[in-house]
């Protein structure tokens, strides 16, 4: 390369950086900035009326798993926290699995419709996005609460005499999250199935695969990118869900999202809220890394 | 030796859609495909040849009629229960599997032991000369190599019948010629019955033991390539396979009188108005004065290299094409407007059914 050419390359590289600088500045401020504040706050002391007091402390981090006894100051494992974590993970995994179980046949159905009908079905799937999440969740609340549509209908039909306790249970949160996040599973699955060459199914069927084997050995591995994308899109917001557990789970059936909110609100323990937020971030990132690596290894084996 | 029948279709009807709008892709098709033969279904697109293949594979169920494999009724068996494998037009190789895994797929689904599958896969890789590619993903292969993987995959479970749905149509001309020979070699080496679907008449003539010519959902004629070419039964077969001339004629005594007035002999007992057909290369051009010659006038000469096509008009205006081998000088010695006499080589004239 001649010096002149070298000069040209360096200059174009410099120009590239200059041109992307505004975007980089915005991204840094918007993404890294707040995160940095959260991390810093997690090492500070809580203020009496919220906010933080400047002074280094690891209390917020130990507070994730342990509570300090008010009277003698000893540390004890916080059962309440653990049950919130466990509920969050359990409900998120269940939601992901169930949205897949329901979403896969739905996506398959849409992808195998004629081109024209497909647009209509996809439109129907996306309609819920047009309504505010809060309103949709209240609608479910209206259906399943004790004096709600479902219970009053059942009572009128004489099938039950006492309303069934549906609202403010883990089951209600699960149903709500499944309903809210189902489109996020269906859309990437549809995209993957739409690209799937249906002749592969015939080929497998022709080569003595049973319908179940066709599904497991050919369809699933080929549409896996869609399954991975859909699972991530459902699992990540599920784990941090706030509105749904708040409205359908009540104060008792909290998830991590509600617990974090509590610290910044009534709990007046911002450092604990911050450390919980960072923990959630780490857990989600870790889970995703493990999941994606596992999915890729499967693909590598071609099994 | 008595010929055993591998595949038999009896009065098969396949209709798509319902009621008034139903389309009959196959309309009462009966055919017997012999064990170990290379049988080609030939016809224009939309003639029903692929539908018949899919019925044999089991991807579709006939609306009426039965399909037998080695004498057993398989009409309602699903594809995974039929000892028949297909090479798809688009190959339909599994993108998430390697070449070796693709080839072993069928045997694995049959639940064969791992060692047996591996041995068979190696054998098939050798057969289609793809040993170095065993661990590649299929997307890393060229079109011709993908074609060979598709063949090996379909042959690996040793099907009773191998179905090939226009497998060569995606290849360029040179590769297609190579694969034609390759297919023929594989068929001879494995002894498996091949049912090959194509719209390419040359492909059908060069590869097949027998050809079934299809048109408009019906089987028009079944026979060896020679029979199909030299003794077409109707106008469709005659014009679809190779080039030909049609001469309208009328029965006169024990011969036929062409519309231009000349009487010619042809092996048939059909009476009334008929159509005679004669291949361009079966006509000789002589002098106008030759005995029994058909008087004609040269209207056009088209030079093709090895051949020269000479277009002539009969007195009644019927145009006839004569194919002459070009002489060394390239000059056929004919001039436009020249009066000539046509004669037919023996047995060249055939009478068509319609």
Quickly count the helices of chain A.
Answer: 13
**Class inferred from helices and paired strands of chain B:** alpha+beta
Q: Secondary-structure element sequence of chain B?
A: EEEHEEEHHHEHEHEEHHEEEEEEEEEE
Q: Please, how many domains of chain B?
A: 2
How many strand elements of chain A?
Answer: 4
* Domain module tally of chain A: 2
Q: Calculate the terminal CA-CA distance of chain A, rounded to whole Å.
A: 48 Å
The biggest beta sheet of chain B reads: 6 strands, mixed
The radius of gyration of chain A is 25 Å
CATH class of the largest domain in chain A: Mainly Alpha
Number of strands of chain B: 20
CATH topology of the largest domain in chain B: Rossmann fold
- What's the helical proportion of residues of chain A? over 70%
Strand order of the largest sheet of chain A: 1-2
Q: Pair with the most extensive interface? A: A-B, 20 and 26 residues
Oligomer class: heterodimer
Which helices and strands appear, and what pairs or packs with what?
The complex is a heterodimer of chains A (303) and B (354).
Chain A: H1 3-41, E1 45-46, E2 52-53, H2 59-62, E3 66-68, E4 75-77, H3 79-111, H4 115-126, H5 133-144, H6 149-156, H7 170-195, H8 198-206, H9 211-222, H10 224-239, H11 243-249, H12 256-264, H13 270-301
Antiparallel strand pairs in A: 1-2, 3-4
Helix pairs in contact in A: 1-13, 3-7, 3-10, 5-11, 7-10, 7-11, 8-9, 10-13, 12-13
Chain B: E1 5-16, E2 23-34, E3 38-42, H1 49-57, E4 64-69, E5 72-73, E6 84-87, H2 99-109, H3 114-127, H4 143-155, E7 161-165, H5 173-190, E8 193-198, H6 201-207, E9 210-215, E10 218-223, H7 225-230, H8 235-240, E11 245-252, E12 255-258, E13 263-264, E14 273-278, E15 283-286, E16 294-303, E17 307-313, E18 319-325, E19 339-344, E20 350-352
Parallel strand pairs in B: 3-8, 3-9, 6-7, 7-8
Antiparallel strand pairs in B: 1-2, 1-4, 4-5, 9-10, 11-12, 11-14, 12-13, 14-20, 15-19, 16-17, 16-19, 17-18
Helix pairs in contact in B: 2-3, 2-4, 3-4
């Amino acid at each position: 390369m001649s010096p002149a050419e070298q000069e040209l390359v360096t200059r174009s590289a410099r120009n590239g950086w200059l041109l992307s600088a505004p975007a980089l500045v915005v991204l840094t401020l918007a993404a890294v900035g707040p995160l940095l504040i959260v991390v810093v706050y997690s090492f500070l002391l809580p203020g009496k009326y919220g906010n933080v007091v400047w002074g280094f402390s690891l209390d917020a981090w130990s507070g994730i798993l342990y509570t300090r006894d008010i009277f003698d100051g000893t540390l004890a494992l916080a059962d309440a926290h653990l049950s919130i974590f466990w509920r969050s993970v359990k409900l998120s995994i269940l939601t992901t699995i169930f949205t897949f179980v329901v979403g896969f046949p739905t996506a398959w159905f849409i992808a195998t419709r004629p081109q024209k009908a497909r647009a209509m079905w996809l439109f129907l799937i996306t309609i819920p996005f047009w309504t505010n999440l809060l309103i949709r969740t209240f609608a479910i609340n209206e259906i399943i609460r004790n004096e709600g549509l479902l219970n009053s209908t059942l009572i009128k039909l004489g099938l039950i005499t006492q309303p069934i306790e549906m609202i403010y249970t883990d089951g209600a949160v699960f149903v709500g999250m499944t309903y809210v996040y189902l489109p996020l599973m269906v859309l990437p699955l549809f995209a993957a199935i739409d690209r799937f060459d249906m002749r592969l199914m015939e080929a497998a069927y022709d080569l003595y695969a049973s319908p179940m084997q066709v599904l497991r050995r050919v369809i699933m591995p080929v549409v896996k990118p869609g399954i991975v994308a859909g699972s991530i899109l459902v699992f990540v917001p599920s784990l941090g869900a706030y509105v749904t557990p708040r409205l359908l789970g009540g104060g008792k059936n909290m998830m991590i999202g509600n617990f974090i909110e509590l610290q910044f609100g009534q709990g007046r323990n911002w450092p604990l809220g911050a450390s919980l937020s960072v923990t959630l971030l780490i857990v989600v990132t870790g889970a995703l890394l493990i999941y994606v690596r596992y999915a890729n290894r499967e693909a590598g084996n071609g099994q | 030796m008595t010929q055993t029948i591998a595949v038999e279709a009896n009065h098969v009807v396949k209709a798509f859609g319902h009621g008034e709008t139903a389309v009959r892709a196959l309309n009462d098709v009966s055919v017997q495909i012999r064990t170990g033969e290379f049988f080609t279904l030939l016809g224009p697109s939309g003639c029903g040849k692929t539908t018949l293949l899919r019925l044999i594979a089991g991807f579709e169920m006939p609306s009426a009629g039965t399909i037998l494999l080695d004498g057993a009724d398989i009409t309602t068996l699903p594809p995974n229960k039929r000892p028949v494998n297909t090479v798809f037009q688009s190959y339909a190789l599994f993108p998430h599997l390697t070449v070796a895994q693709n080839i072993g797929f069928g045997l694995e689904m049959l639940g064969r032991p791992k060692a047996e599958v591996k041995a068979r896969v190696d054998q098939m890789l050798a057969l289609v000369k793809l040993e170095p590619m065993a661990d590649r993903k299929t997307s890393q292969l060229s079109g011709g190599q993908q074609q060979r993987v598709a063949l090996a995959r379909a042959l690996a479970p040793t099907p009773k019948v191998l179905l090939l749905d226009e497998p060569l149509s995606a290849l360029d001309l040179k590769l297609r010629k190579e694969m034609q020979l390759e297919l023929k070699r594989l068929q001879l080496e494995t002894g498996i019955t091949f049912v090959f679907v194509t719209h390419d008449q040359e492909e059908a003539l060069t590869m097949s033991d027998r050809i079934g010519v299809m048109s408009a959902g019906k089987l028009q004629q079944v026979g060896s390539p020679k029979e199909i070419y030299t003794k077409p039964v109707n106008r469709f077969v005659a014009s679809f396979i190779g080039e030909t001339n049609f001469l309208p004629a009328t029965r006169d005594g024990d011969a036929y009188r062409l519309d231009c007035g000349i009487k010619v002999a042809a092996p048939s007992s059909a009476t009334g108005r008929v159509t005679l057909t004669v291949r361009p290369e079966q006509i000789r051009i002589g002098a106008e004065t030759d005995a029994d010659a058909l008087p004609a006038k040269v209207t056009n000469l088209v030079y093709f290299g090895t051949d020269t096509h000479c277009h002539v008009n009969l007195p009644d205006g019927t145009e006839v094409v004569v194919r002459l081998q070009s002489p060394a000088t390239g000059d056929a010695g004919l001039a436009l407007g020249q009066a000539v006499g046509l004669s037919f080589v023996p047995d060249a004239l055939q009478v068509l059914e319609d």
